Every structure is written in structure tokens, then in C-alpha cells.
Amino acid sequence: MHTIAISIAALASAGLLTLQAATPPAADAAPRTPAARPGPWDHELLVQRIAADGTTSTIATFGRADVSSVARLKDGRLAIACQAFPEDDAAHFNRVAVRISGDDGRTWGDPQPIVMAKMDAALAPPFDPALVALADGRVRMYFITHTGTDAAPGPTAVHSAVSTDAVNFDYEPGVRFTVPGRVVVDCAAALHDGVFHLVVPDNGTPAEFLGRRRSGEPQPGGNGYHATSTDGLSFTRKADLPLPSTRDRWFGNLLSDGTQLLFFGTGPGPWPMTSADGMQWAKPAAPVRMPGIDPSVVRLRDGSWLVVATREPAPAKP
What we know:
Oligomer: single chain
CATH class: Mainly Beta
CATH architecture: 6 Propeller
Radius of gyration: 18 Å
Number of helices: 3
Order of helices and strands: HHEEEEEEEEEEEEEHEEEEEEEE
């Protein structure tokens, strides 16, 4: 495993970072991009296939995108949800969009902005999506939102919505998970053995979170929140999850392979951490090298991993 250089821009939630950096344009405004300063609109998603022998090949690169989640739908298609920053579509700047693959990740369709029905108008548009395929064929998206304004957002929390096509969603009323007085962003979710699990990195208080961002310090690693539910809606907080190293973060992807939970996170690792119940976690016997930060992972039909990770632009040459 190699040590990944992680900047403060990449560690912050794309949604919160953008709210603090620049107000997204209104739907009827002329398209614009806050290009005068760096931000998640400069990031790209790197889609790679990692074979069982560790051989890595790049499948695609999606520009102006951040904070991804990938899942296999009941019909076999793959879906990537992410925060999108299109240059020529002001109405969907800093909004969640979905790409679909019908050939097991070899090719991907154009991004489709999600449509959210029945959502409380007092809530900010969804960001930081986490997809979970349900047994009945639908897909649930857990995401972060808040009350308040762009300039003065209220407390962040995990909410959810369901869809039959991974594009058109119906909001499910109520808060799924939050921690009073703490910044709750970048949730990961999975359904394992009949139990829904949420894992969220511990980002500290709002003052700590924003203070570290302003000073250029990375967000802290080592600790994460964990909550479980039998219906995917009413969650109970469990004991916090420590990681062996504070260089590593619960900032990535949670998934089930049918026998155990796996978490692919951000930092040198090794990843994935594995668990039978989401409570006790162990290092992997065969680590997988992560190609970027905030990885999202799904198993392909040939047994390899499809990894979607955020990659920041290379530093400008002097």
C-alpha cells in the first residue's frame, strides 16, 4: 500500500465544501463555474478494474465529479451516483447525478441528474449519496442534507429516498441518523444479513471541521460512527468504530459480499477492513490498493473489483 496525499478540499464533503466556497447558481441563472478558486468541481472520478492478481486497468475517467457510490441493481446493471458539477447546466450544478452501465462496468451512459419527489422544501438538495440495492428490486439512496441556507446551513444529518430506476426517487420522511453537535457527512451504507448498517467518519464539531479546513489541516481519522436498522429507516447508534491508525478514515464504501461486511476507506490502509457484524473489524489478509480517495467498490461478475475513487487534479507546473 502507498500513502495517499490527501488535501483538505478532498477530505471535506463536496456538498458542505461547495456551500462554504460558492453558492450554486439558481436554476434560471446563466451557467457559471467558480473556477477562480479550487474546489470539488476540479475533481474527477477514476473508474478502475482491479483483478484478483492485483492487476489494475483504467476503465473511465469522469471529470467535474466527486463523492461517488456504486451499486449493482436487481436487473444486473451497475449504477454510479455522485456529486456532479456540469459546466453548462446551472440547474444541476452541485447536484447528485447517476451513470448506468449495462455491460458490467465496461461502458457507462451519460450522467442523469436525479429527480427527488416529496422532499421537504426546507431541506437542502441531497449530497454525499450512498446507494443500497434492496431485496424488492428498488434502490435506496442515503444522503446528507440540512435545514437553513447555503450561507448558514443547519445541522447535517443522513436522510433517504427510494427508487425503482436509480434516477427518480421518492423522499422518505424523517432523519435516519445524526449526532447532535457534530458534523455528519460522507455516510456509507450496506445491507448485510437482514441488517442495514450506516458508517460515518467522525468529523468533529462544526467549529473544528471548518477550522481545520481553513487552516489546511486534514480532517481527523481513526474514529467513526456506526448505526444499525432492521428496516433501513429507524437506526440505533452503536459503539463508535476505532481504526488502527489515525491516518485512515471511515471515508469510503461499505458493502456486503454475502458472508461479511467490507469497508474500503481513505488513507494508507490496508483495505478493506472486514467484519461479520459491523461491530468488530479486522485487517484484510489480501489488501487491495486504493487508486484515490473516498473509494466506492462493487464486485464484478468475473470476480474482480470495480473501484470508483475521487482524484484531484495534478498540481499546476510552474
